[in-house]
Amino acid sequence: MTKTAQDIGRVITRYGAELILETASGEQLRCTTRRKLEHVACGDYVRWQVEPQGNASVLAILPRKNVLERPDFRGKLRAVAANIDILLVVSSWRPEPNWEMLDRYLVAAHLLPAEVLIVFNKADLRDRYHHPEQEACLREYFEIGYPIVHTQAVDGNGLAEIVEAIQGKTAIFAGQSGVGKSSLISQMLPEQVIRVGAIGETGEGRHTTTVSSLYQLAGQASLIDSPGVRDFPLPKLTINQLQAGYPEFTRFAGECRFNNCTHQHEPSCAIKAALAAGELPPRRYQRYLTLLKSQSNN
Ligand SMILES: Nc1nc2c(ncn2[C@@H]2O[C@H](COP(=O)(O)OP(=O)(O)OP(=O)(O)O)[C@@H](O)[C@H]2O)c(=O)[nH]1
Ligand SMILES: [Zn+2]
Question: Which residue among 159, 269, 272, 289 has its CA within the 20 to 30 Å range from the CA of 246?
């Protein structure tokens, strides 16, 4: 390649102003960004070139299919990853499932838009820690039609189902800290995790993911490990955006008296009627109300 030739690469990870790219030929390359590209994210496709000084630099971000964002500690939206086909929302039996957070991830997935797979990890702890209320919450997602897999990262149980679901796609693992996202990825890609760990230079242990990183699964899929979170707040959404995250409502679309019905206390609400008739999952609806209220407060 000549010094000015430009090429396309994909961002594997980012440390401040420095990026690791995967080039079109599959090599990993350390790259700098120009200041105006500060929003470049893991999963972005970029145009890059070798500068006359010999260093590689990113020139432009190619148009994105979508970008998953979340607010930082100041409330400013930050890109977690870009160009996502499927969101793997990971929960576990310990730490306890956070159903409200799972619902918020599902709303985010519908907005991206991206497919969803609900992953319940630490299946080995289910008998010890589950209780009927939690099983009922989980069953509601199944009844709505969300795909769910139960995994055990320690012995690889259930991983084949994830691999099948993500064939040919870019998948992102998201969820609470400590549910086992990195462990699942290590099981799927033992060699690569060790190699990327060596590139990290952050001095952090492998089990505290601080930046999003992309891994290739034998050329069949791309996996993104994103930092675990204590919470996943949603930005301010319109009522339509919020309700789009509740596919169980769509069968009643247009049946409420008011077409902007929030399904709270409006008269002749088809959702409330369906709930009273036992045709909708009540726990999801209660959490929908909580989310709606939190939206009006922010
Ligand atoms: N019992 C059991 N423990 C598991 C399983 N998978 C992961 N763990 C343990 O759970 C802990 C957290 O795992 P991680 O893979 O670091 O979790 P993470 O979701 O990547 O956490 P962050 O990097 O903070 O987001 C570790 O001690 C793992 O050994 C599992 O299937 N069963
Ligand atoms: Zn309604």
Answer: 159
